[in-house]
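Question (not urgent): is this output format expected?
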Amino acid sequence: NPAMAPPRPPSSAPPPPSATNSALKSKSPAEFFADNKVIAGFDNPGKSLYTTIRELVENSLDSAESHGVLPEIELSVLELTRDDLNARLGLAKADRKDEKLYGDYETDKMKAKRLKQEAAAAAKLEKAGGGAASQAQANQTPAAATKGKGASTEKVYYVVTCKDNGTGMRHGDIPNMLGRVLSGTKYGVKQTRGKFGLGAKMALIWSKQSTGLPIEVYSSTGNGKTSYYKLDIDINANCPNVHQSSERPSENGKWHGTEICVTIEGNWSKYGHYIVKYLRQLAVITPYAKIDFQYQTVAAAAAAAAAAAAAVAEEGADDDLMPMSQVPSASQSRAQASKGINLVFARRTECMPRPPRETKHHPASVDVQLIKTLLTQTTQKDMVAFLNKEFSCINASHAKKLIAELEHEGVASNTQPRKVSDKQALAMHQLLSSAKFGTPDGAHLSPAGEYNLRLGICKELRPDLVATHESEVKVNEGHTFVVEAAVSLGGSKVRPGLNVFRFANRIPLLFEAGNDVITRTAQKRVNWTSYKINANTDRIGVFVSIVSTKIPFKGTSKEYIGDDVKAMASAVQDSIRGCCKQLKVKLVRISAAKERQQRKRNLTRYIPDVVNALHTVLGTLSEGAKESDEGGVVAAKRRRMLADCTVVRRDCGDHEEDLAAAGTFAVLEGSAAQVDESLMSMVKNNRISKEALVDALTAHVNASDDVDDDGAGGAGTTSAGGGADATRAEELWLTPYGAMDATGSILDNHRALDDGRRTATILSHQFRFQPLVPL
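Got this back:
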C-alpha cells in the first residue's frame, strides 16, 4: 500500500557510514599512556623526573630481591642544557636573528629591574649567612642563571643512569621488556612494587616525547656476555624500535645486572628534594640495600673532568704509571670540583626478606570475567579439580559441596570446565561471592620484617626510642595484607610533632598524604596523650608499611590508600597502638629513673649542711659528757633529748659490726640509758667524724635508690611487701639537733636546744625517714 510506505529521506541526509568510512578509532596501549601520562605519574617535567628515577630503582630492587641477591644500585643524574642536548642530537647551534621572537627577550627596563632584584637578594643572603650569596650563585643551575623573563620556563634536561646487580635480562627479551607497554613479568596474584606493570616503559615514552633520544641498555645474566641495545618505542604500534644491538664478552667477568641510561626533560629545582626524600625513606624500608646516588650539573661534571685531567698532567705520566694512591678517584674529583649531591646509603644488614611468591586467586576476589578466563585456560578435567587447583582456600571436600549447590544449573562434579556456559559461570560467581571461605596464611607475602624496619629507622633517623609491631594476616576483598608499624621518638632528622612515613609494598608514598588512611589514623584515631606522648612537641616518627597482593589505591596517580577500607584502617590503628603501648612502658621507666636521679641530686646537695649540723651537735654532746661528773642536770637533760629521738629504719644487710666499727651511726637496741652510754662512748673516742657522717649519708642515699629500683616494677612505685629483705632492717638513731627550717637553712644549735616547739625536718620525706618529734 503506497499510503503505508515510510517517507523517503531528504536528499540532503548523509549516507550511512560504511565499513571503510567509519569514525571509530582505536589506540594502542602505548598511545593511550602517552596521551594520559598523569595516570602513570608523569604529570609535569619535575614529576616525570621523580617517577623515572623511582621506576628504575624499584625495577633494580625487584630484580635483585627476586633471586636472593643483596641489592647494590648506582644512580646518577646529570643535568644538561639545551645546547648540550642539541650536541647529543647532532643539531647545529644557530645564532638568533630576531631576539624579540624568543621568550627570554627583555627590554632595558626589564633588565634593570631584574638586576636590581638580584642585587637585593644577594645582599640579603650576604647579610644572613656571610658567604651564602656567593655560594648560592656558585650552585646556581644553568637554567636559573639564564637571563630574561623566560628564565623560569627554560627547559632543563637530565641524563638518568641506573645500574644494579640483579639477574639481568636475556638478550632476546630486552626489546619487548622495555619497548612494549603492558608486557612484563609482574602480572598475576603477587605482591609487586609496580603499579601498572609499566616500569621503564613510561620513561622510554617520556624520553621519546621530550628529547627524541633513545635509551641505552647494558645487561648480563652472568653468562660472561653483555647485551647492548639502543632503542625507543613506536608509540602508535606499541612495539620496540631497535637502533643498535650487540652481544659481546663481559669486561667484568661474571658481572650480572642491568644498566639503563635515559635522557628526559625534568625540573630538579622543584622536585629534587622529593627525590632525595624518596631515597632516604627507601633506605629505611630496605636497610639491606646499598644505594649510591650522585647529582651533577654540566658545569660540575666539566670541572671534575678538568680536575682529573690536571691531576694526571701534573705528574706528567699516564694513570698506569702513577701510584694508585695519587690518582684522584671519581668521587674525590667530584667533591673537589662540584657542589652537587653525593649520597651513599650504606648496607646495614644482610638479612633480606623472603621473596614474594605468586599465589592462587581467592574465591571472594574474582569477578565474572576472571572466572570465564580461568575456565578456558585451565588444564583440569573436571570442576572439582578446577575449584581445588585454581583457587586458594578450597580443598576437594569443599569443592564437592560447592558443586552440589550448582546442580540446578546443570553443573556436575565431572563437568569439563571448558564446557561451562556463560549462564553457569554467572551462577558460579554468585555462589563464590556469597559463600564463606577461610583466610589465606599470607606465606606468599614479603613484609620487610620488624628487624629490618627498626634497623632502617635507627640507621637513617637515629631516634632515642623506637618500637615496632606487625599485625596478623588480614583479608580485604579476598586479598591478604599485613601491616607493619613503627613509632620512634627523638632523632635529629625529625621535626617536632607527628611525622608520618607511608609505605605500600615497600615503596615510599610521598604525595597526597592528607587523604591517606595511615595519616588520618595517626592524626585522628590515636590518643597520644594516653601513652605519655605529646603529639605537638615530641619528635614523633610514625612508620607504617602495608604489603598485599592488591593495594587499594585511590585516584589515578595511586599515591595514597583510601580511608574507606575498614579492615585496613582497623589494622593500621591496632599496629600503631601496639607500638605506643611498648613506648609507654619505656617512657614510664625513664621518667621514674629521672625522678630517682633528681631526688638523689637533691639529697646529695644537702649532705654537707646536715653533716656540719650533726657534727656540731655531737661535739656539744661530747663536751657535756665530760662535765657529767660535775652535776647531774646536764646529763639528765641530755637523756631526755635522746629519749625523744625517732627511730628510723634502713636496710643495711648483715654488716652491723662493720657499720659500728666504721664510726657511722650506732646500731643500738634497748633502753635510752644504753643508747646514751653507747653513743657517748663513740663520741668520747672520736669515732664519729665528718667524713664518716658524709660516707654514711651518701651510702644511705644510694641504698634508697637501690630499694626503689628493686621495688619499682617498671612503674616507679615502691614495694611495701614483706619477705626476707623487709624483715632484716636495722634501727638507726638520729639526734634532732641538726634541724632545718622550711627554707632548708641549718638552725643554730643552741637555738634548737632552747626552742622546744620547733620541728626537725632534715628532708625526712626525701630520705624516707620517719618525721622527727618536736624538740
